[in-house]
TrEMBL record:
One Pfam entry name: adh_short
Name of this chain's protein: NAD(P)-binding protein
GO molecular function per UniProt: oxidoreductase activity, acting on the CH-OH group of donors, NAD or NADP as acceptor
Organism this protein belongs to: Venturia inaequalis (Apple scab fungus)
GO cellular component, one term: cytoplasm
Keywords attached to this entry: NADP, Oxidoreductase
Organism ancestry: Eukaryota, Fungi, Dikarya, Ascomycota, Pezizomycotina
Length: 344
């Protein structure tokens, strides 16, 4: 098996001036709030025209409207990412009729498996009803579909035809590398006890990322630049989904980040043409780091272990509490089947 193409690790200790995204067109799914909103705002402020592909019309329109009021370029498209036709419509909704940056961010929270196992719903014959597939549909399948659609659109609509030429091969501005930035999670690397739907989906996103960064350089056609594929892997991030868990996490020494931390890393990746095939862990307090998810980095294991020893995940405190019987597994999960907002 060929070694996937990866550039050297990102050095976050050095200053970096991102290139302007003026003239670029981006689409961010699930950008009506949280991480997606912060990413969309950052891209728009950097000059990109951003399509906010968001199912919640009120939230999506509000984000787009506020950006336009501030003088930036943004639009909302109501998008159910689990529907292929909605995704196609969102991509073709681009006012420039071309897409340069795709960020499949949309995701939903997951319930732990234990309540379903202890109180499994049954049909009239006493057989179990199937568990919800929403988390897998949104957090994995929709990401896969969005990524494949991105490649198709990148290939079909490479750039804007020049208004001064009849040739469709002449572009304004000249074509540059298209980009996909996946939104994985620390759950793409670390165990997620009791929540297999979320952990499985996020491991799957990492699998898609690792497979797609190995695409042939000429996947978009001979003579064209390839697709830059990277991934961010947020740890615990303050959001509407995780708000109730933040005090619990911080008492255990977990470094909780913000959606802005994620947006900052995305800008670092997007604005640096020298970054390809990298996965970045996003933590608060400036603690983000390149996971070195490649052969030389032992597929991210070395960096994850080092971060764990630094205590940023709260592992040591949690282990000690569980060893003493002061903390049980169910304490790490929501009560009464309440949805847990996981971004780890």
């Amino acid at each position: 098996m060929a070694t996937p193409k990866c550039t050297p690790r990102i050095d976050f200790s050095t200053e970096f001036g991102a290139e302007s995204l003026e003239g670029k067109s981006a689409i961010v799914t699930g950008a009506g709030g949280g991480i997606g909103e912060s990413i969309a705002r950052a891209l728009a402020r950097a000059g990109a025209y951003v399509t906010i592909a968001e199912l919640n019309e009120e939230n999506g329109k509000a984000v787009a409207r506020s950006l336009r009021e501030d003088g930036f370029k943004a639009q909302h498209h109501k998008t159910d990412v689990t529907k292929w036709t909605d995704l196609v419509s969102a991509f073709t909704f681009s006012p420039t009729k071309t897409i340069d940056i795709v960020i499949p961010n949309a995701g939903v929270a997951s319930n732990p498996l234990i309540p379903w196992l202890t109180n499994t719903p049954e049909d009239a014959t006493g057989n179990p009803l199937p568990p919800s597939q929403a988390v897998v549909d949104v957090n994995f399948t929709a990401v896969y579909n969005t990524a494949l659609l991105a490649i198709y659109m990148f290939k079909k609509y490479p750039c804007l035809p020049s208004p001064t030429s009849d040739s469709t091969s002449t572009c304004t501005p000249p074509p540059s590398a298209k980009q996909i930035i996946f939104v994985g999670s620390m759950a793409s690397y670390r165990d997620m006890p009791g929540i297999p739907s979320y952990g499985g989906a996020k491991f799957g996103v990492r699998g898609i990322f690792k497979a797609m960064r190995g695409l042939a350089p000429d996947v978009l056609g001979e003579g064209r630049e390839g697709v830059r594929v990277n991934m961010i892997a947020p740890s615990w991030i303050r959001s509407g989904m995780t708000g109730g868990l933040v005090p619990f996490l911080e008492r255990r020494g977990v470094v909780v980040g913000s959606p802005g931390d994620c947006a900052g890393v995305v800008l670092r990746i997007v604005g640096d043409a020298g970054v390809y095939g990298r996965a970045v862990a996003v933590l608060g307090n400036g603690g983000s780091f390149d996971l070195c998810d490649d052969y030389d980095g032992l597929e991210g294991t070395r960096e994850i272990l080092a971060a764990s020893k630094r205590g940023v995940f709260g592992d040591q405190t949690t282990r000690e509490e569980r060893k003493k019987g002061e903390l049980k597994l169910e304490d790490l999960l929501p009560n009464d089947g309440e949805e847990i907002g996981v971004a780890i």
